[in-house]
Write a structure and sequence with these properties.
Distance between the termini: 6 Å
Helix content: 40-55%
Number of strands: 6
Strand order of the largest sheet: 3-2-1-4-5-6
Shape: globular
Low-confidence stretches: none
Radius of gyration: 17 Å
Bound molecules: 6-O-phosphono-alpha-D-glucopyranose, magnesium ion
Structural class: alpha/beta
Mean pLDDT: 95
Length: 224
């Protein structure tokens, strides 16, 4: 990659800033039980970063053809109701370790910070976490026509920030998200295991492990 002057970081929400995967799992599990469809914690890993509709399609698998569109819509709404019940329990304590420090350090250095999430509950989650005000832009599941792995949500965030995609870094914990950011021509920082985020330019185990100096130095040198 050529030399990059990073001017913005776009953070995925679920799995980077907060860990809502467990709540998504419990809500999908309740729906799956009601529908008599097997669904395990392991199956839930496939839903990471994936849109609500696609999640339902994956969950139903071979049973998908049994359902009409109206039933699919009803199930998505039902799951979301269960999920939102859990969101009521979220507080500032649910920020992932290192998330707030990363955001604060970026801002201190004059780098813009945005959210780029597939979730249509983004605003609700950020409000519960008490951090809505600190972002320069918030792109969520309402902003993008196509879900990740299409780059739409990140491109929308970059446009909102008025910064070229090439000058943006994206932090992601999901394979679909890493692919979306690569497709958008952005620098990609993966958090999580190699098999999920291995295609990213930089990989760290967790948000707390992100080495900002390493990223800024390497990209500035064109050493990515
Ligand atoms: C995030 C999560 C996914 C979730 C998606 C849609 O990307 O990682 O697990 O399915 O958002 O969330 P929503 O809140 O709109 O159902
Ligand atoms: Mg995520």
């Amino acid at each position: 990659m050529h030399m990059v002057d990073l001017q913005a970081f776009i953070l995925d929400l679920d799995g980077v800033v907060t860990d809502t995967a467990e709540y998504h799992f419990r809500a999908w599990k309740r729906l799956a039980d009601e529908e008599g469809v097997p669904f395990t914690r392991e199956d839930n890993e496939q839903l990471r970063g994936v849109s609500r509709r696609r999640s339902l399609e994956i969950l139903l698998g071979e049973h998908l053809s049994r359902y009409e569109e109206a039933q699919l819509l009803e199930m998505m709404a039902r799951k979301n109701g269960y999920y939102q019940e859990f969101l009521g329990q979220i507080t500032e304590d649910d920020l992932l370790p290192g998330a707030r420090a990363l955001i604060d350090t970026l801002k201190e250095r004059g780098i813009k910070v945005a959210i780029g999430s597939a979730s249509r509950n983004t605003q609700l989650v950020l409000d519960r976490l008490g951090i809505t005000q600190i972002f320069d832009a918030i792109a969520d599941g309402h902003c993008a026509a196509r879900a990740k792995p299409a780059p739409d949500v990140f491109v929308w965030a970059a446009g909102r920030l008025d910064i070229y995609a090439q000058h943006c870094a994206v932090v992601e914990d999901a394979q679909a998200g890493v692919q979306a950011a690569l497709a958008g021509g952005m620098v990609v920082v993966g958090v999580g295991p190699e098999e999920r985020v291995g295609e990213a330019h930089f990989c760290y185990a967790t948000t707390a492990d992100i080495d900002l100096d390493e990223i800024l130095t390497a990209t500035a040198a064109g050493d990515v």
